[in-house]
Specification:
Shape: elongated
Strand content: 5-15%
Number of helices: 13
Largest sheet: 5 strands, parallel
Number of strands: 9
Mean pLDDT: 93
Length: about 400
């Protein structure tokens, strides 16, 4: 009977800390303590009466050390393919990663865009594979004050453009500035879709603008679709999320990103709970909902993107370079075919040129090698089309 009670208590504590994290906003250490206790009690329920608690703890510590040691070893050896990589990638992405847009030291609420980077600040942004210094301008973007004044080139996009995981000198925008000799303003912000990228570009000084460089990812489609539909209905396209919603995300960020003792084992147990739930329900844990678009479809991505990019071209009347970085090569193929031969919108096939060494081992973002390769491909297009004449 005691075993069942301990088992249920352990399972309850693990479940609460995995699926009800909103209960612990601004109480991350309480959440971590409960999660740790849940793991210990769960295993104690199986070993109750056979093994002393101190030996259970020692065994769990050893398992935890192997969990993290193996991952660190694979990253140290730069292994792009290894046993359980998919599991580790899922864990790091969804349960052990800080999002810069919800880092209280590096971001701030914006009533139109939901968030920007925190204006005029300097701080450290780090995750499992990197630790970087981030400096921002008064616009809340990752660039310096001088770049705000009459830039000739502006780069817009999401975290890839922002320079996720790399230092400023290794960003695409910095490399392009050094190679072209023209001032380049980086307006990339993590998780922005094309619609918000257009909005933040409107805030910039464009008097000397000669070229726009836009990076696309399949995650943009949801924002692009929802904002364009709001326009059709005559509704406001400003964010409907309040500052309290932003503050909730900020409070959740450390719950997700910080380490707590036995977090690796906790994640393994949550994985098995998810698998069990899926088998019991006989359907995926996340049900596929009917949608007006398929984010893996090149045609669907192009449909909404094309409206915004043509709007931008007419409004700013300068050449636009487009490139895609993502998980679906068919999207790049569709985009490349659409803009081939266009004399004002130019496509650069970056995604197909990137390989495993151009990205972090676990994180899907481009590392400094990938950023340099991206900048080189863009530079080739600038020169071949004489876009800065």
């Amino acid at each position: 009977m005691n075993r069942i009670i301990f088992f249920l208590i352990g399972l309850l504590l693990i479940g609460v800390t995995a699926y009800q994290r909103q209960l612990f906003y601004n109480l991350e250490y309480l959440c971590f303590a409960i999660a740790f206790a849940g793991v210990v009690i769960f295993f104690y329920s199986f070993l109750y009466g056979f093994v002393k608690v101190k030996y259970i703890l020692l065994g769990l510590i050893l398992i935890e050390a192997v969990f993290w040691g193996y991952l660190k070893l694979m990253i140290y050896k730069q292994r792009n393919s290894f046993f359980l990589k998919e599991y580790y990638a899922n864990f790091i992405t969804f349960r052990h990663r800080s999002l810069i847009q919800f880092d209280k030291n590096l971001s701030s609420y914006d009533p139109e865009l939901f968030y920007t980077l925190k204006p005029n600040t300097k701080g450290i942004f780090e995750n499992f594979e990197f630790k970087t210094t981030v400096e921002t301008s008064s616009m809340g973007t990752r660039d310096d004050k001088s770049s705000l004044d009459n830039p000739k080139i502006v780069t817009i996009g999401d975290s890839f453009t922002m320079g996720w995981g790399v230092e400023k000198e290794d960003m695409v925008s910095t490399i392009l500035e050094a190679k072209t000799g023209h001032k380049v303003l980086n307006l990339g912000v993590s998780s922005y879709g094309t619609y918000r990228e257009h909005q933040i570009l409107k805030r910039a000084d464009r008097d000397s603008l000669k070229l726009i460089i836009l990076q696309y990812n399949e995650t943009d489609i949801e924002e692009n679709y929802s904002k364009l539909k709001a326009e059709e209905k005559g509704e406001s396209t400003k964010t409907q999320l309040k500052e309290s919603d932003y503050n909730n995300e900020v409070a959740f960020n450390p719950l997700n990103s910080k380490y707590f003792p036995l977090k690796g084992i906790h994640s393994i147990l949550v994985y098995f709970i998810d698998s069990l739930k899926q088998k019991i329900a006989k359907k995926p844990t996340q049900e596929v909902q009917k949608s007006n678009f398929d984010f893996t479809s090149g045609e669907d991505n192009l449909k909404y993107f094309d409206i915004i990019i043509n709007r931008m071209q007419k409004e700013f009347n300068v050449p636009i370079i487009i490139y895609y970085i993502g998980n679906y090569q068919n999207i790049e193929d569709v985009f490349e075919n659409r803009y081939q031969g266009n004399n004002s919108i130019y496509y650069v096939p970056v995604n197909k040129k990137l390989d495993s060494k151009d990205r972090f081992i676990i994180d899907e973002h481009t590392n400094k090698i990938g950023q340099a390769k991206t900048a080189g491909l863009i530079l080739e297009k600038i020169h071949s089309e004489n876009l800065l004449k």
